[in-house]
Design brief:
heterodimer, A: mainly alpha, 4 helices, B: mainly alpha, Cytochrome C Oxidase, Chain A, 3 domains, four-stranded mixed β-sheet, 6 strands, 68% helix, 2% strand
Chain lengths: 129, 757
């Protein structure tokens, strides 16, 4: 499988950018008052991108033989991912006030950026390493 | 009534005739099964293997999970090789090498293609010759062959042990290190596997086909499909077309029957939920729990195909090896579906008769505890067996029998059989007043009850073999349970229970439904009973098995080809009245059952059913393609539909979370389609092509299965499996919220009992 490493990594990176880009766009539209940010086709597109992202992530972990809860930087990524999902949910759906939603959206984007820095550094401290 | 009586008589005659033939075939299989010799000796008089070793070897194979780790005669699991085909090919190569070195001084691999062909031509008649002599009860082989056997046995001793040289191969096969800890047991295991390979390559006395009808395909030993495989395949297609034509004609004739005007309110909303009915709720909680664990076991099993001994850095094979995760995955599939059906039977029976027998609730609770004890006890025994902690003496009774879908130790089998008996008693005593009352619903209630009786009693066939029963006979009886359940009585139960529910809802006339169900039962069982034989083409059975199996299993597909009628009718009935919205989700799950019956059971089933295709496809990934789409697609979704139907009754005034159910429904169906179309089908087709080009052994080899394209296809399971898991989690969340902080929203007037006049 290692023969496919560059291709799988490319898929993973593209999926990360698409996922984050879509989240940014949906949040922005929602906060500007556009209801189509929560339209079904966009939601299903988001699920599809995230499923591809997850699959590629699992493949990469197996290929390089580094795993969450075994290697610190991947553990950090998983923990941050959970935080990102929770914040994202509050940003787009669960946040009761506009203020909560905006704060959660910005926090989720910050977490997203930090996950990328952890991935690039292969270190739990990411950009602060 | 007259037509009902005729149909009952027809059904009786059909069952009598079919089972008479099935039993006769069983006698024939017993008569011509491949012999297990008292000794295998060389012409120099050296003992190679004894019967005791072959039989002990089978016990060892069973104790490590049997069918759940590789396959024998094509039956079993798909990551490790088919041991029969693997041994046979290795033995042939070893013998060719010995022969080549003796005559040319060079290794067989170093010869030219032309030279190799001449050695193969010498090998084929020698390896296929039947040297078993009944008078001495021995098989005599040449010293060269004994040397070849010893070489292969050494490879197997290393493979099933802990030899570092074969670590990568063990990983490719998803085998734990020290699969068999005792060297003597490992040696006995080689005796058993050799015997299965001997039967696969040795010609029957006076015939040019081997005991396994020349299976597995391997040109190196002269194993190629005999002519009758093609002949019966062609005839089976003809029977299928003729059957479809006849059934289409029947449907065309009866399509204009008058519909029943639906009642203005939900008749079932008036059903009094008795204490025993309420007690069935825990069965449905258990269904959800078992389904979630089953999916987890499936994910682990699939992951072993990528990292043979680990899962994301955890040395999982040391505590939960592949053969165990797969055992539990397949067992739990049967167990949660069965639990859903048991719960449904216990819920429906008092609802139908309006009669709550004394101590019925106690019985329902007691049976539930028994089920828990069986699941936990049997699984503990299987863990101890596979981890080689139980010992061979106790394995048969309390450990792992190694027969796929009937893996439970014998003690647990008996316990389950008695449990099923108790279930029949509980359902029967509650239903009896409705049957005694007579009237037009008597027939359909009786039919429903009879199908449950058959489900219960036919598990008894799983008790027909003992610890040392011949492999061919165990396969014969095993398929009585597995096949007659899923392709016989489960189908009847599914048809009967759905029609029955519609009659209780007042949407179908009881007489019409009874005739339709009786007719469908006859059609299902006409192919279903003798269709059992299509699993036994290559299990040491006579040619008659192929003729009958091919003909009747083609007929099994006939009703499935026209299941669209049923799907359409089910869907239309779901929209018959406004209050049917209450049953929207059970109905949609029933509609999906019809869809997967056509695709999973019909199309993917017929793909591997006829003798010639199955000759190449048996044990390839086209088998789990059929397995997943038919077992979950049909019976799994039916179980969920029935559960939702009962939950509607248990929580009559509760607003359902439609969104969660919608997520569950679509995620289940899309996920199942994803795993089938993105992984199992393409992988199976690649294997099929490899089997036809190089031989069956190659299609199952690490050489093929470790290729990047196969590994990529394995990974492509993740999207489908993930979506599928979302479906299960959504269902679990739905059931959880019915009891924990349920919705307080009032029901819309058209949906609830408030709509009653």
């Amino acid at each position: 499988m290692i023969q496919f490493y560059p291709q799988v990594k490319l898929v993973h990176v593209v999926a990360v950018l698409l996922s984050g880009g879509l989240f940014f766009l949906r949040g922005l539209v929602l906060h500007l008052g556009g209801q189509w940010a929560m339209a079904a086709p966009l939601r299903y597109l988001s699920y599809t991108i995230d499923t591809v992202l997850l699959t590629a992530a699992l493949m990469l972990a197996t290929m390089i033989r580094q795993y969450p809860f075994v290697h610190g930087w991947l553990t950090m990524k998983v923990v941050l991912l959970v935080a990102y999902i929770v914040l994202g949910t509050y940003a787009l759906k669960r946040g009761r006030t506009r203020r909560t939603r905006v704060i959660c959206w910005l926090a989720a984007l910050a977490v997203y950026a930090f996950i990328i820095s952890v991935a690039r550094a292969h270190h739990p401290a990411g950009v602060f390493a | 009534m007259r037509s009902t009586r005729h149909l009952w008589l027809g059904l009786g005659a059909l069952l009598l005739g079919s089972f008479a033939v099935l039993l006769w075939i069983g006698g024939e299989i017993h008569r011509v099964k491949p012999p297990i010799p008292s000794a295998v000796v060389t012409t120099d008089g050296e003992l190679v293997y004894s019967r005791a070793q072959i039989e002990k070897g089978r016990q060892v194979w069973q104790s490590i999970g049997g069918h759940q780790l590789g396959s024998i005669w094509g039956h079993g699991s798909y990551v490790a090789p088919d041991w029969t085909a693997d041994w046979l090919h290795r033995e042939a190569l070893a013998w060719l090498d010995i022969d080549a070195r003796r005559h040319t001084g060079r290794a067989y691999d170093a010869l030219t293609e032309h030279e190799q062909a001449s050695f193969v031509a010498r090998l084929v008649p020698r390896i296929r010759e039947n040297t078993y002599r009944a008078e001495t009860d021995t098989i005599t082989i040449t010293p060269d062959r004994a040397t070849a056997i010893a070489q292969v046995a050494e490879h197997y001793m290393k493979l099933f042990g802990n030899d570092p040289e074969l670590l990568e191969l063990r990983k490719a096969y998803a085998m734990k290190n020290d699969t068999v800890t005792d060297p003597e047991h490992r040696h006995a295991l080689t005796a058993f596997i050799w015997w299965t390979a001997w039967a696969a390559v040795t010609q029957r006395p006076g015939k040019s086909i081997t005991y396994t009808n020349n299976w597995p395909y391997d040109p190196l030993v002269g194993n190629a499909p005999p002519a009758h495989l093609l002949i019966w395949t062609v005839f089976s297609v003809l029977f299928l077309i003729a059957g479809i034509a006849l059934l289409a004609w029947h449907y065309a004739r009866h399509r204009d029957e008058a519909r029943l005007a639906p009642p203005t309110s939900d008749p079932l909303a008036l059903v009094r939920v008795t204490p025993s009915m309420r007690a069935t709720a825990k069965y449905f909680w258990l269904v959800v729990a078992l389904l979630l664990v089953q999916i987890l076991m499936g994910a682990i099993t699939a992951h072993y195909q990528v990292e043979g001994q680990e899962a994301y850095g955890i040395a999982l094979a040391e505590i939960l090896p592949y053969s165990l995760s797969r055992t539990w995955h397949t067992q739990l599939a049967v167990l949660w579906i069965a639990t859903a059906w048991l719960g449904t039977g216990l819920y429906i029976a008092p609802a139908v008769s309006g009669h709550e027998p004394r101590y019925q609730r106690l019985g329902v609770n007691f049976l539930f505890v028994c089920l828990l004890v069986i699941v936990l006890g049997a699984f503990a025994g299987q863990w101890l067996a596979v981890m080689q902690k139980l010992g061979l003496e106790k394995n048969f009774w309390f450990g792992h029998q190694g027969w796929e879908f009937v893996d439970l130790g014998r003690f647990w089998q008996w316990f389950l059989f008695i449990g099923l008996g108790l279930w029949l008693v509980l359902v029967g005593r509650a239903l009896m007043p409705a049957i005694r009352k007579g009237g037009e619903s008597r027939s359909i209630v009786t039919l429903l009850f009879l199908s449950t009786v058959c489900i219960g009693l036919f598990y008894g066939a799983g008790l027909a073999w003992s610890e040392h029963t011949h492999l061919s006979m165990v396969e014969y009886w095993r398929w009585w349970v597995v096949h007659l359940w899923v392709e016989g009585f489960f189908e009847v139960f599914a048809t009967a229970v759905i029609a029955f529910l519609f009659t209780r809802l007042g949407l179908l006339r009881t007489t019409t439904a009874t005739i339709a169900v009786l007719f469908a039962t006859i059609v299902f069982l006409a192919g279903g009973v003798l269709g059992t034989l299509h699993h036994l083409y290559f299990s040491g059975t006579p040619t008659a098995v192929i003729a009958l199996g091919a003909s009747f299993s083609a007929l099994e597909v006939v009703p499935l080809a026209l299941v669209g009628f049923e799907a359409y009718q089910t869907f239309k009935l779901g929209q018959a009245t406004p209050w049917m919205q209450r049953y929207r989700w059970p109905i949609l799950f029933f509609t999906a059952v019809a869809f997967w019956n056509l695709v999973g059971a019909g199309l993917f089933g017929f793909l591997i059913n006829p003798p010639l295709p199955l000759y190449y496809m048996q044990g390839l990934n086209l088998t789990p393609l059929h397995g997943h789409t038919a077992l979950f697609g049909v019976y799994g979704l039916l179980g969920i539909g029935l559960m939702l139907f009962c939950l509607r009754g248990l929580k009559p005034n509760q607003q359902w979370n439609e969104r969660v159910l919608s997520t569950s429904f679509w995620a289940f169906n899309i996920g199942l389609a994803g795993m089938a179309l993105m992984t199992l089908l393409p992988m199976g087709v690649i294997q099929l092509s490899a089997a036809i080009e190089h031989g069956y052994w190659y299609a199952r080899s690490a050489e093929l299965m470790q290729q990047p394209i196969i590994q990529l296809l394995v990974w492509l399971r993740v999207p489908g499996d993930t979506i599928f898991s979302v479906g299960a989690l959504a269902l679990a969340w739905f059931v959880f919220r019915l009891w924990v902080r349920p919705s307080r929203k009032p029901l819309p007037i058209t949906e609830g009992a408030e709509a009653q006049p």
